[in-house]
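question for whoever is on the cluster today: can someone run the full assembly for these? three chains, 804 residues total. i dont have access anymore since they changed the login thing
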Amino acid sequence: MGMKHLDEYRDPELARFLLEEIARKATRPWTIMEICGGQTHSIMRNGIDQLLPDTVELVHGPGCPVCVTPLETIDRALAIASIPGVIFTSFGDMLRVPGSRDDLFTVRSRGGDVRMVYSPLEALQLARLHPEREVVFFAVGFETTAPANAMAVRQAAREGIANFSVLCSQVMVPPAMRAILSSPDNRVQGFLAAGHVCAIMGWEEYEPVAEAFGVPIVPAGFEPVDLLDGILKVVGMLEKGCSGVLNAYGRVVSREGNREARKVMHSVFGVADRPWRGIGLMPASGLVLRREYARFDAERRFDVGHIAPRESPLCRSGEVLQGHLKPDACPAFGKECTPQTPLGATMVSSEGACAAYYRYHRNPDSL
Amino acid sequence: MCLAIPGKLLDITEENGLKMGTVDVNGSKTRACLEYVPDIVPGQYTIVHAGFALKIIDEEEAAESLKLWQELIGSGAFETGDELPSTDDL
Amino acid sequence: MTEPFACPLPLLRHETIQMAHGAGGRLSQELTRQVFMPHLGNAFLDLLDDQAKLTLPSGRAAFTTDTYVVSPCLFPGGTIGSLAVNGTVNDLAVGGARPLYLSAGFVLEEGFPIADLDRIVGSMAEAAGKAGVLIVTGDTKVVQKGFCDGIFINTSGIGVLRQEVELSCRNLQPGDRILLSGTAGDHGMSIMTAREGLSFQSGISSDCAPLNHMIEAMLDAVPGIHAMRDPTRGGVAAVLNELAASSSVGIDIEERSIPVRDEVRGACELLGIDPLHAANEGKLIAVVPDEAAREVLGIMHAFEEGRDAAIIGTVSVDHPGMVVMHTVFGSRRIVDLPAGEQLPRIC
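^ ran it for u. tokens below:
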């Protein structure tokens, strides 16, 4: 039995066809950024970068919510999770991410009640089951995950579940794209947009970005054939000198995206300035609770005093996240910094570019 | 950033006032919130992320692009230097 | 009439474990008589001595111990009890030993349902019967509520080593073939999707099974098998990396040849887990000289626990210490050790 809507896009013959098309089309060197860490992971896992012609270089984008969550927020999460009586819930992704001193697992080992959830609704269910406890959900994510987080908050409000709150670290893609394109060091000439972000957001908001910077932007999926189709479309547009948005993920992404999801997301969250780890403050790049939902804000509910995060001076993840530095070009890569001793979140997150390089490409000479 | 996997909706139920359903992913079943795909009916495929169905998969779009690729492979268009319609539509 | 004065007698019929069940008194005896002996009783255990007195065949013996803390303790395809028996049986068998005798030590949490304990001990008896081993000595302790997660079991096992066999993870030779006895990741994904609270109802069955009979037949036919390991925690990836490192050789595996069950693959995709990193409890990896690989594979296929066995790769002189996957697309990538506990992820 095959997995429908998945295995078709892992077909080696189709991949070879698209690779040949890319090689034939790319007459000049092009630098393309895949925005999403999940795409980076798939590219590395399937060795797509090795199969592309030398003319096409992929650089890896900032689309990893774990990687761009500020250290200050992680330290705050650790402080809240350490409060007696709190049940701190998180996606599995955040449990191993180190704060200035330790991670959520360490908090659990000291007696903190840290639990992994797969859906924000599971966190809400814990709040229903334990009315005497405070249940906090670590609401990280891009536009794909924010609607799920929003539904948990809206539902808590509807049911009057007062012992539920969320610690928000939610960010949006377009401001990051603008920041990357505006940088004087920018090398990116075209983008693969994150297919699952676009499933929610559509691509209307990418049209002005493509126009303003004269770049092709192609929403793409995550399977090898999806990625290669996306790359082929970007290369085709670059070669012809066109900019604009061209969809390579038609089965999931439409121009208008998912209106219902956006409606709920915007009803619960408003846009705010937000610092990105390693990159800095980006205007209007975050999603925070609206005033009418402010009572569900864990940051307000729990006073954990002043947080003074300490970043490793060796970590250059900010440059990696903006495509300025390849992970294995960082002097600390594989030395001071490994998945066992990560200096930054890009090494610990399963979809962080540094972790993907370490895992699949650590010693490329021997491959 | 966002792992979302296609699966087939098996049933629709209600939990705490939310539309929920069981999604079959290659024989593994998971619960998913269907509030964001209100028109979905059992038998349709959706992609699931963090316990939420994000989008009903557009079967026609999927079949069409696969058919197009297969035709191009079959015709050997890529060897003759013919342009790919998909990138030249702009 | 007034009742004659008497101190109330302690309750003997309990539905859950009490501290007194581990105190060596009447309740301990009850538990032994009503739960442990009916399932596990044999000529050694029936004596209820503090030790089992065994006569071992001559030659070298293998001795191993392992402690089982799996949660949930009941899962599709097994229990912590069958796991504790099969795990220790397999640890002996992959070293080239014939497993004979096991010990079993229980740590029970106050309040643990006796019906669950009965089911777990029953599954131990069944597993021991299948493997052809005897549980000859045991012990039970009870800890206060909250001091352990329901039930922990330690098993130790003793077996006799086959004379002509020399299995070692330092034995790998370039050209050897890597055989995997069945589908990857069944146990790990069974446990992960059976965990309380997660939104799954996969019903993936654990592969928990004794491998000693199949191993016996493999070694009967080809005593010159170079190495054998059971890929439990850390999965196939961890064992391959250990083998490559111990023998200072490279290992190349073919992505398309690795067997994975449909629903396991579905769960792995959904949760972002690599099936090569997920645990197995009824699988082995055998490293076999090329000329004998087909024969060993045929023997594995004749057993229920080896019916999906496949040759998944080859030992090479290149990239010593590293495991390299050849993808279906013709690219190559490193197969690394898992970083830690496998966690479902959304990114």
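summary bc i know u wont read the tokens: Chain B touches chain A through 46 residues (CB under 8 Å). The helical segments of chain B are 59-75, 77-80, 85-88.
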